[in-house]
Amino acid sequence: MKHAFRNALIRIVTMLGLEFGILLSGVVVTETVFSWQCVGRLVTTAITQRDIPVVQAAVVIGDLMGISLGIIAGYRGGRLDDIIMRLADIQLAFPFILLAIMVLVVLGPGVWNLIPVLGIGQWVTYARIARG
Question: Structure pTM?
Answer without folding.
Answer: 0.59
